[in-house]
Amino acid sequence: MLKQANYCIPFLLVACIITGCQNYKATTSSANIKLPVTFTGNADTLSIARLPIKDFFTDPYLISLIDTAIAANPDILTAVQRIEIAKANVRYNASQLLPQINAAANAGVEKYGDYTMNGVGNYDTNFSPNINGDQRIPNPVPNYFLGFQSSWEVDLWGKLNDRKKAAYARFLASHSGYRLVITSLTSQIAQLYYQLLALDTELKIIRKNIALQDKALEIVKIQKQGGRATELAVQQFQAQLLRTKSLEYQTQQQVKETENQLNFFTGNFDKPVKRDTSITSAKLPGLLAAGIPAQLLLNRPDIQAAELELAAMNADIRVARKNFLPALTLTPYLGYNAFKSALLFNPGSFTYGILGGITAPIFNRKMLKADLERTIAESKVALYNYQKTILAGFQEVSNGLNGIENYNQLYLLKQQELQSLNNALSVANDLYLVGRANYLEIITAQQSVLDAELGLANTKRNIFSSAINLYQAVGGGWR
Question: Is residue 76 part of a domain?
Answer without folding.
Answer: yes
